């Protein structure tokens, strides 16, 4: 994507991006950095390529202790948090519908996709409310509206819950000075997704292009004809957390190249 000059519009802001070492989270962290923010990232494993401009906290955010650790380290190390991007999420449960899933599948998915943001919001909101300032972004998914029950039943349910929770939270804390927004991407072309396409192609003796078309067909087609690049999602998040989006709160933004079939 073309490089813009963001005029250091986030200069002086402290931002946290969960799952900021890979995929969309990495692109969001880079984008906030470009706009001048101090950016902290979290994941279970350190980033593959070290970037001295990003501050890394190792933590498993699917646990309550992991979330507490991040809140404590950020607030003791930086004194406050201005921008919280709850990006971490994903699905690793087996396909096959309801009967293939056990409690562990449901719990692990709900913990990472719904409870991690709930716990981090709870940890960071008091100081945002006290200062009457802050922005919280919840990265959901179009699957919150377009469930693919055969492959990602718990994930879609968790993301639907996240969208609903995000709206409720916005109603509660916007009058106290904190903006809360949901961003629901469609398919994103991450490194993990590239590897996954390669695997499908190998297993089905087809090309990567054919595998990509197969995934797009399963989604009902993507009018844009391709998945989003992580930087395209990051660019939108960068705008939403900036002062240019000062009146935006309590809404969900879909960024899916036209995938969702309804308005
Ligand atoms: N990719 C898509 O097509 C797509 C579509 C719609 C929505 N989304 C949403 O967009 C967001 C980003 O997805 P992505 O595909 O870009 O992610 P990704 O490439 O799979 O990266 C996931 C990130 O989260 C970290 N992570 C995973 N489990 C964790 C845990 N338990 N505790 C702490 N960190 C953890 C990973 O690092 P470690 O493994 O080292 O912990 C990594 O940094 C997610 O909310 C996802 O649901 C993605």
Task: Explain this structure.
It comes from Chryseobacterium taiwanense. GO terms for molecular function: oxidoreductase activity, acting on the CH-OH group of donors, NAD or NADP as acceptor. Keywords: Oxidoreductase. InterPro entries: NAD(P)-bd_dom_sf, Sc_DH/Rdtase_CS, SDR_fam. This is Short-chain dehydrogenase. By secondary structure, this protein is an alpha/beta fold. The chain has 2 domains: 14-188 and 228-255, NAD(P)-binding Rossmann-like Domain (Rossmann fold, 3-Layer(aba) Sandwich); 189-227. The protein is 44% helix and 14% strand. Strands 3-2-1-4-5-6-7 form a 7-stranded parallel beta sheet, with helices on both faces. α1 (23-34) packs across α7, α3 packs parallel to α4 and α5 crosses α6. The longest helix has 29 residues, at 103-131. The protein starts with 13 loop residues before the first strand and ends in an 8-residue tail after the last strand. The mean pLDDT is 96. The structure holds NADP nicotinamide-adenine-dinucleotide phosphate (NAP). NADP nicotinamide-adenine-dinucleotide phosphate binds next to α1, β2 and α5.
């Amino acid at each position: 994507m073309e490089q813009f000059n963001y005029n250091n519009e986030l200069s002086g802001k402290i931002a946290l991006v969960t799952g900021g070492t890979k995929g969309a989270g990495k692109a969001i962290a880079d984008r906030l950095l470009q706009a001048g923010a101090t950016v902290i990232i979290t994941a279970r494993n350190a980033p593959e390529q070290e970037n001295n401009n990003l501050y890394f906290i190792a933590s498993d955010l699917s646990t309550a202790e992991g979330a507490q650790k991040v809140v404590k380290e950020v607030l003791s190390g930086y004194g406050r948090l201005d921008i919280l991007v709850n990006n971490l999420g994903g699905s690793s449960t087996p396909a096959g519908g309801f009967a293939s899933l056990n409690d562990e599948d449901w719990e692990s998915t709900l913990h990472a996709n719904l409870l991690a943001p709930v716990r981090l919001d709870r940890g960071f909101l008091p100081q945002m409310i006290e200062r009457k300032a802050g922005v919280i972004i919840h990265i959901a998914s179009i699957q919150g509206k377009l469930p693919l029950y055969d492959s990602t039943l718990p994930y879609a349910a968790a993301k639907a819950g996240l969208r609903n929770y995000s709206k409720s939270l916005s109603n509660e804390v916007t009058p106290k000075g904190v903006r809360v927004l949901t961003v629901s991407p469609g398919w994103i072309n991450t490194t993990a997704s590239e590897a996954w396409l390669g695997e499908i192609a190998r297993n089905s003796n087809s090309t990567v292009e054919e595998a990509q078309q197969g995934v797009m067909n399963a989604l009902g087609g993507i009018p844009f004809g391709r998945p989003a690049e992580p930087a395209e999602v990051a660019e939108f998040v960068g705008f939403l957390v900036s002062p240019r989006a000062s009146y935006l709160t309590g809404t969900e933004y879909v960024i899916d190249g036209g995938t969702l079939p309804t308005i």
